[in-house]
């Protein structure tokens, strides 16, 4: 998905999330199955939060088994450390630079690195702040009630100098591994240019163009992007629906053959229990992902 944030010029790259553990999608949340060891090997069923386990399942004994999910702030892995706006801006700048061809070589060229620093410092504060914090920061003081005031400055020379130093460290890691650590916060994500071959890249481009053409008459523009970001396949359109969604407890769907599993499995039963009331004891004004 493209950003409303005014990025530095970049070439196409290919991203991936952490795919090192088998996972299943429940609604929009990826989790790793917890095995029911009380049954024998022929009847054992995989259990997931919302399927065999409580939707807010949080057992410290399963923290190495169940992939962190964000269904509710009581769930393990749903909370994250609060990040400063400046820190997020620095990650965005580094992400843009790491999208440039041969960035891992050019970052050691002082002249090019200085050019990138100038570009980063020239980014408009209002646009950067809007991308990071719009509708995410509440303010309850006098004339600014409802929205925090936009800062006069976000990035300074010290910030962009640090970005170049960190990028050079990432470049060394990239040379050894072929992987680019991109999100460095409570969670970590990496991307790579070498894990997807040219044939698959072309298939993805073709599929993208087909989706775009099919939605040409009525594009789904992402809110707040002024018709610049189009949601081709929005995850919120395909949630887990009890009594409708098909699930599989006997097998774990892999990455290579995932498409062949479409339409298979059994319909997840309609829950007979009344949903619990939303816990509003924690003030949303002072929390991010449930953390105070």
Automatic annotation (TrEMBL):
Domain DUF4246: 48-119, 158-270
Cleavable signal peptide: none
Matching InterPro entries: DUF4246, DUF4246_C, DUF4246_N
Name of this protein: Uncharacterized protein
Taxon lineage: Eukaryota, Fungi, Dikarya, Ascomycota, Pezizomycotina
